[in-house]
Write the structure tokens for this entry.
Amino acid sequence: MTELLGIKQLAGILGISASTLYKHSSGIKRCDLLHDLPPPAFRGKRVLWISQDIEAWLGSKRTFRPAAPAAEPEPRPDRRRGRPRKSTPVGEKGGQHEAA
């Protein structure tokens, strides 16, 4: 016997909210990511999907993307941002004028 998935179960598998899946399946609001989702089977008022169809659909969606090489972080400047602290001598930080 085939296993049937309800809206909450399928939403959990896909990592989306149940309301998004419901809106897509009922035609209220179409989701671009789900445009080729297998059609549901209806049992009374329940909207169900056949698990084998979903597994095949997910298998067709998987693509291999090699990981991008990690970029080295840029060195941070030594200067502190913002207003100078009281312990900083006057004139050391730009914007402050020394008294003559």
Remarks:
- Helices lie at 7-14, 18-26, 51-61.
- The first strand starts at residue 4 and ends at 5.
- DSSP finds three helices and three strands in the chain.
- The chain has a mean pLDDT of 78.
